[in-house]
Write a structure and sequence with these properties.
Blueprint: E1 8-9, E2 12-13, E3 15-17, E4 23-28, E5 36-38, H1 42-45, E6 56-58, E7 64-74, E8 87-97, E9 114-125, E10 130-132, E11 135-138, H2 139-145, E12 156-159, E13 162-173, E14 178-180
Parallel strand pairs: 3-6, 4-7, 5-7, 7-8, 8-9, 9-13, 10-14
Antiparallel strand pairs: 1-2, 11-12
């Protein structure tokens, strides 16, 4: 069992579940109907406006061998699943369900990750179904996400996403099915 914590950003919580620097982490459910991670986004949906994003639901950072299987992630106030700087992400038989009328509720957003597989899943969101990102952020921001301080650091981390495979996945979205940004 790993203790998970919420991290903060100005004005809004950053993330509901945010493990950092772990090896062999998994969220495994019995099935998608009974195993549910609910982000409680409904309280954010009514007050959303540009510049005020709610917390992301699951953001794993600098980790290796991440598995998500047989689980539903729903009602995220912002991006739903956001692995960042990770190696070996396997997501299968997952459902991501967010209201289509709410913006910025991306489904699956691998960011600067390598060796990612997503298959046999359903994504229904109010923004991008899948958005593949390649990070270009300051080392200070990355350290803050991990709960460490590097105040004043001018270094920039640039890491491309690569070796990403998506198959047998259904997407419903008011924006892009698969995009990059």
């Amino acid at each position: 069992i790993v203790a998970l914590r919420c991290t903060g950003r100005p004005k809004t919580p950053r993330c509901c579940v945010s493990p950092t620097s772990l090896i062999n982490i998994a969220i495994l459910g019995a099935d998608q109907n009974t195993s549910v991670v609910d982000g409680g986004g409904i309280s954010w949906y009514w007050r959303w406006h540009p510049g005020l994003d709610g917390p992301r639901l699951f953001e794993v950072i600098w980790s290796t061998n991440v598995i998500l299987a047989h689980v539903t992630f729903q009602n995220s106030a912002s991006w739903t699943i956001h692995p960042t700087f990770c190696d070996g992400v396997l997501a299968h038989h997952i459902r991501i369900l967010n209201p289509r009328w709410v913006g910025n509720t991306d489904g699956f957003d691998p960011d600067s990750c390598t060796d990612v597989k997503l298959y046999d899943s359903i994504i229904d969101t109010g923004d991008d179904g899948i958005s593949i990102k390649s990070g270009n952020c300051s080392a200070e921001e990355t350290a803050a996400r991990a709960g460490r301080s590097m105040h004043g650091t001018k270094q920039v981390i640039q890491r491309p996403s690569k070796n990403i495979h998506i198959y047998r996945t259904k997407m419903l979205s008011r924006n892009f099915g698969v995009g990059s940004g």
